[in-house]
Write a structure and sequence with these properties.
THDP-binding; hydrolase; thiamine pyrophosphate binding; Rossmann fold; about 650 residues; thiamine pyrophosphate; six-stranded parallel sheet; TPP_enzyme_TPP-bd; globular
Length: about 650
């Protein structure tokens, strides 16, 4: 197809009958293509600026990517920065958080060696898949030639010679391709970009890169590397689906909106949500992914909804006759294991039909902004009943007072603080510019407390990964959020359990000058699961350090502050909430990552709000507590069946 090139040096062109070509290795072509991608940012009225689609590439080099992709990234380091990390899963988490902080409009790529480098990506890929977030994974792979098989770190399958460690990424990738010839990039890369930038398909893409193919040369058409601008489509609802949705809403007197992450990811949808709620008098509850879609103090914001929800939102959701779910996949924490919306018709606006039909919902497959504007226009002067809207406003006021009371409680002498006390201290320390904070969290009790109590003043202020609830995401996710929003103060709130699972990117944040404030709540174990274990009738066992099998030296007394200092951060252990608040002011004034450690109570949690969550309890046990818990469980299951 292409004429002979003058040399194999990158950038050398030749002219053939088919047009101008450039001779590149597959790795050079891939990097050059990524560097050429741009994205138009704006709102429903049109794009306002164009920036690089890829903010950079996280890389941990090893055999399988250092020679091919490493050299290509070096050549393009000025236009496509390469960032070094300390753990492959963590750097993928950081890349995913970067995309989340950019509301899926910008993203990053990640490259690893073969073997453990590649398999370390599986957990992060699953997280991105569950949360519908874009990340491009570029793991090194074995030799296509198979000449040196088995190479170092190669996973061999006894029945299939074509399988490698990268095949573990297939179930958790929205698109997977193994590049076995340089020409494949001509089709694989546009497909990959389509998935990464499509609202319905969005998720992790894996391009497995065999190490010999990375270094092979090919004459690529020059036009393949021309700058391309990705425009994110905002599909309008079909007239048929719109008509049915309007009919369902128009006959409702007690409607409620459940705002999910899709509201944040749709340009203009937060504006459309606010206008819809105000025009039609509809209260709004927020999922974990959707929190911040409406300011926390808006009169119609009734707070978090679901298992970790507010008493206001859950009371309304239970009594609603129609729930308009927007951009949410209606997972069990939102629906209370399918018990919360028991008396309501559910209309689900989602770009993805797979998510739109959950919970027996009437789907409206559309962009959130486009759907809200179209629904509002069709509904005209329809509103919720005056009594319903007034109840919602009253409940919202009461809930905000509950939040204030919980986060401003006076310390009790002799008692350790708990999560709500820490959340209050963090928000008070930002009194001059609270809207500048981004809080990052992922697993344990903290997401529940933050969902209820964090006051998100604008979109993006709340960054909690709770689709996969992945311990270890927190610090790496904070790094990604800071890289995406360097002008914002990023506060990572993390338990001691998650900190111990993955903390290495503290060193990366120091190296990159990406300052974080990390607050470690040390309750000496997995406090959340310890409480769940006992709620299911179990004895405290293998969760808190004191309840674990121990050797003669006993459980370790871990000095988290000393550990953080060893990674280059400022760090201190504080004795109480007053000291924490003072330390937070020092951390805000610093230009370096700070880690603040406080001992907390593993047994306490905010009692207000919440809803039933189905956790199966053993049907047979010698423990009376388990049998009692099983009886309570069976009662709840029976109630759900009765509706």
């Amino acid at each position: 197809m292409n004429g002979p090139a003058i040399s194999v040096r990158e950038g050398t062109t030749s002219v053939a009958a088919a047009g101008t070509t450039v001779r590149l290795t597959a790795a050079q072509a891939l990097v050059r293509y990524l560097a050429a991608q741009r994205v138009a940012l704006g709102d429903c009225s049109g794009a306002s600026e164009t920036v690089s689609l890829f903010g950079g590439v996280f890389a941990i080099f090893g055999h399988g990517n250092v020679a091919g992709l490493g050299e290509a990234l070096y050549q393009h380091r000025e236009v496509l920065p390469t960032l070094r990390a300390h753990n492959e899963q963590a750097m993928a988490h950081a890349a995913i958080a970067y995309a989340k902080a950019h509301f899926r409009r910008r993203m990053m790529a990640v490259t690893t060696s073969i073997g453990p480098g590649a398999t370390n990506l599986v957990t992060a890929a699953a997280l991105a898949h569950v949360n519908r977030l874009p990340v491009l994974l570029l793991p090194g792979d074995i030799f296509v030639s198979r000449a040196p098989d088995p190479v170092l770190q190669q996973v061999e399958d006894f029945q299939d010679g074509g399988i490698s460690a990268n095949d573990t990424l297939k179930p958790v990738s929205r698109y997977f391709d193994r590049i076995v010839h340089p020409a494949q990039l001509l089709t694989a890369l546009p497909r990959a970009l389509r998935v990464l930038t499509d609202a319905a398909l969005c998720g992790p893409v894996t391009l497995a890169m065999p190490q010999d193919v990375q270094t092979m040369a090919f004459d690529y058409p020059v036009e393949f590397f021309e700058t391309r601008v990705a425009h994110f489509a905002a599909p309008a609802p079909s007239p048929v689906e719109l008509d049915v949705a309007v009919e369902r809403l128009a006959r409702a007197s007690r409607p409620m909106i459940v705002a999910g992450g899709g509201v944040l990811y749709s340009e203009g949808a937060t504006r459309a949500l606010r206008e819809f709620a105000e025009r039609h008098g509809v209260p709004v509850g927020e999922t974990q992914a959707g929190k911040g879609a409406l300011p926390w103090d808006h009169p119609l914001n009734v707070g978090a909804v679901g298992v970790t929800g507010s008493s206001a939102a859950n009371a309304l959701a239970h009594d609603a006759d129609c729930v308009l779910a927007i951009g949410t996949r209606l997972q069990d924490f939102t629906t209370g294991s399918n018990t919360l919306f028991a008396h309501a018709d559910v209309v689900c606006v989602n770009a993805n039909l797979f998510d739109g039909i959950k919970h027996r919902a009437l789907p409206v497959v559309a962009d959130a902004c486009a759907a809200l504007d179209a629904l509002s226009a069709c509904l005209a002067d329809w509103t919720a009943s005056d009594a319903w809207a007034e109840r919602a406003r009253t409940l919202a006021i009461d809930w905000r007072e509950t939040v204030r009371r919980r986060t401003h409680a006076e310390p009790q002498p002799g008692n350790l603080p708990y999560d709500a006390d820490v959340i209050g201290a963090i928000q008070r320390s930002a009194a001059r510019s609270p809207e500048n904070d981004i809080v990052v969290c992922a697993a344990g009790t903290l997401p529940a407390e933050l969902h209820k109590l964090w006051r998100a003043g604008r979109p993006g202020a709340y960054h909690v990964e709770y689709g996969y609830s992945c311990m270890g995401y927190e610090i790496a996710g904070g790094l990604g959020a800071k890289l995406a929003r360097p002008e914002r103060e990023v506060v990572v709130v993390v338990g001691d359990g998650s900190y111990l699972m993955m903390n290495s990117e503290i060193a990366t944040s120091v190296m990159l000058g990406a300052k974080l404030i990390i607050v470690v709540l040390d309750n000496r174990g997995y406090g959340c699961i310890n409480r769940l274990q006992q709620a299911c009738g179990g004895a405290p066992f293998n969760n808190l350090l004191d309840d674990c099998l121990q050797g003669p030296l006993g459980a370790p007394d871990i000095d988290f502050a000393a550990h953080a200092r060893s990674l280059g951060a400022n760090a201190e252990h504080v004795a109480n909430v007053t000291e924490l608040e003072a330390a937070l002011h020092r951390a805000r004034a610093s230009d370096r990552t700070s880690v603040l450690v406080i001992d907390t109570d593993p047994a306490r949690a905010t009692e207000d709000g919440g809803w039933w969550w189905e956790v199966a309890v053993p049907a047979v046990s010698t423990r009376e507590q388990v049998r009692d818990a099983r009886a309570a469980y069976e009662t709840k299951v029976a109630e759900r069946k009765r509706g």
